Amino acid sequence: MSAMTSVGGDQQGRPPSMAERMTLILDAFTGPEVRLTLEDVARATNLPRSTTHRILDQLVQLSWLEHTSFGYALGRRSLRLGGTGRLSSNDLRAAAAPYLHELMVRTGLVVHLAVLDSGEVHYLDKMGGRFAGAVPSRVGGRAPAHATALGKAMLAWLEAEEVDEIFGEALARNTGKTIGELSALHHELHRIRTRGGLAFERGECFSKIACAAASVRGPEGPIAAVSVVGEASVPLERVAPLVVDTARRISTELAREGRQDDPQQINQQQIEDKGAWSPDALDRFETGPDSGGWM
């Protein structure tokens, strides 16, 4: 069945109506994190490129879609109508941007913001100086969640059964240091929880790269994660408290914005649960003796 007949537009030889063409385009976006280019949408709908571009512009103006530097995505209206409760990528990036910039300035390292998409992390933002070009990540790109500190920081707050469903029995190895067994991954996620959500990886995704990450959390679980990235030889323990603090501050910012729309939707007590790091704990960690390795 062609794209046009799927909405009944040409049953009598007529071209699809505007409503049908808009429906075709919106149906191409199968989830909140899907990013499509103009060419992707035109190919998925079998509509002319010029027609697709015109309708996309109208949908963006009406907030059914949003247009970012890495493609089109569902907008505020679509997300609210669908009842997903999910933040749009633009909203998340806007809320996180000042805190990511501060973290980059304070550490001098590359900073990432990412979300979890099934078994992968999806990079929403990347900031950094001269070392940024040496880090093989890009905004809109993806990496295996179990091989990155970003991914493990989010996976740690999921139910064990959900992690099992995401990965099955086989875990692909990017390097010789990548976790390759589900039991080993569960052990690592337990360690992350015991240290308040702080995740590390060195050479697991890329052999010469090390990361420290913490998740941005809401009342229903992880929303995103923040990481700092350096060369594998760089000890990240000293800057790790800043990563945790940045993730917590972004969580607080999102909670504040959530309360403006719905006072019952998010509250800070749900975010700062017994697994969170207190400011005193962060200070003790930052000023304490060097651990000499991953915690």
Task: Describe the protein in words.
The chain has 295 residues and is of the alpha+beta class. The protein folds into two domains: 5-82, Winged helix-like DNA-binding domain superfamily/Winged helix DNA-binding domain (Arc Repressor Mutant, subunit A), CATH 1.10.10; 89-287, 2-Layer Sandwich (Beta-Lactamase), CATH 3.30.450. The chain has eleven helices and eight strands. It has helices at residues 18-27, 38-45, 49-61, 76-82, 89-107, 149-155, 160-167, 182-194, 240-261, 268-271, 279-287; strands at 65-68, 71-74, 110-117, 120-127, 142-144, 199-202, 209-218, 221-231. The strands form two sheets. Strands 5-4-3-8-7-6 form a six-stranded antiparallel beta sheet, with helices on both faces. A two-stranded antiparallel sheet has the order 1-2. It is globular.
List the helices and strands and how they pair.
Layout lengths: L17 H10 L10 H8 L3 H13 L3 E4 L2 E4 L1 H7 L6 H19 L2 E8 L2 E8 L14 E3 L4 H7 L4 H8 L14 H13 L4 E4 L6 E10 L2 E11 L8 H22 L6 H4 L7 H9 L8
Antiparallel strand pairs: 1-2, 3-4, 3-8, 4-5, 6-7, 7-8
Helix pairs in contact: 2-3, 5-9, 9-11
